[in-house]
Amino acid sequence: MNRTPEGVIIGGGIGGLVASIKLASLGYKITLLEKNASLGGKLQAHAYGPYSFDFGPSTMTMPWVFKRLYTECGEQQDPALQFIKLDVNSRNFFRDGSVIDLSADPHFMEEQLKSFSARSRQGFKNYLREVERIYQIAERQFFSRSFTKWSDYVSPALGISLLGVRPFTTMNKFHETFFDDPRLLAMMNRYATYVGSSPYRTPATLSMIAYLELLKGVYYVQGGNYKLIEALERLARKKGVDIRTSIPVGHISVRGGKVQGVETPGGFVPASFVVSNNDYYATQLNLIPEEFRSIPGSIFLGQTSTSLSSSGFLMLLGVRKTFPRLHHHNLFFPDRYETEFTDLFEGEVWPRNPALYVCNSSYTEPQRARQGGGSNLYILANVPAAVPGRLGSHPSELASVADLYRSRLTGLLERQWGLQGLSANTEVERVFHPGDIAEISGSMYGALYGRASHGLKPTFFRPSIADRRIEGLYYAGGTTHPGGGTPMVALSGMLAAEAVSRNYPVLEGYARSDESS
């Protein structure tokens, strides 16, 4: 009897897990190889004594994407996977002492905006209508397309839709048409950082992120966001995916322009097709033969932080006290927020006075920090990717730079932002710099989203789901189409699986090789 097409998924992040689940549900024999000891990619769980943390994506939107995955696989959503909608999306602090909470509740937002000008109040309503319109076009015309062939790009309907999503206006300019208050402008401009980019160079199209948060809401996975990974792993195993952790892939074997399988320290794993959930650019540079690369290696050698998306400097602090002014998600904005993007994408330096994001999930689940007697703080600042040759990016320099930055940021939180006693009461501390992020996630130089979304091409013409030079090689993840963010990465896994199924159909009469005689 014929054998089912066999595939290998490289990487057990959300994109890889979703692709493996979809393909296994369609009847393919799938092996998933993960270089780390645990699945999840950028999303990991860390526990230190009485404190537990989520490492990686902390803001969840679009839970219906995962419900759709279960439905399409003929399953009920895992009862252990519960998405909690937060009443407050984020609490935003400003140097003038004002505090603004953002929410998807329109009545709540009316109260929040009472002290603002009439123009700002009306502008906010108009803004929500416009970002909803942009999102609906994007969902209909962009998110559902895999863009695996050139004809996908030349559709007249697509061209008309592209013009309708404000691709030639920057996010900041777009926001200035609605808001005259610098605080509202700063909060909306922050959405560019969700794709590691600058609002002064990113197309207004990506303001649709605001639609997801301000109209649909922000969610948290009960028990910690890593529960999503655990649920996806259970579903993958149930569908028959062979999951192997601590197995790095050395390279993808290609013969005659076709995928043959992958080489690992434990030997060769044959495959009719491969889906790489690794960083697209790292896959190109490190895993495929040079003659088949879509991007020459010289591009990477000359890469700068201005063309790559930002990385992050992250602190996980277990603190034996609570901070009543903190909510679940918190943002601390400096007076001149725009200087952060000048530092990141022009000066290529770590911002001296960055906006700080603090996730305090113990606000929602107190048991995650000393059973309610402490705080599990995830503190993030945007910093440039660790491009070789840039000052401070050498592995021998990163640790010392990170230590200085740690002291500076904790000092800012205590002196400027009112978190008194933060340092004195910290009993658990873990620090991660761009080099660490690159090592954990496989991202190129620690750039979290591949190329920055600066301009038309890197925003709308992201790397395709299907490799154009190697038959049988596909991509899923935040560095490819449709983009970064947990739900977008899940969609990329679905699109990759659909592309595979079109090119490697499971024909009638095929049987899974583990069931055939």
Keywords:
19% strand; disordered C terminus; single chain; 517 residues; five-stranded parallel β-sheet; alpha/beta; 3 domains; Guanine Nucleotide Dissociation Inhibitor, domain 1; seven-stranded mixed β-sheet; FAD/NAD(P)-binding domain
Number of strands: 19
Using only C-alpha atoms, the radius of gyration works out to 23 Å
Tally of individual helices? 16
Task: State the major sheet.
Answer: 7 strands, mixed
Domains counted in the coordinates: how many?
3
- Strand fraction equals 15-25%
In which order are the strands of the major sheet placed?
7-6-15-16-17-14-18
Low-confidence stretches: 508-517
Please give the CATH architecture of the largest domain. 3-Layer(bba) Sandwich
In CATH, what is the homologous superfamily of the largest domain?
A: FAD/NAD(P)-binding domain
- Which structural class fits the helix and strand makeup? alpha/beta
How far the N terminus sits from the C terminus, by CA atoms, comes to 8 Å
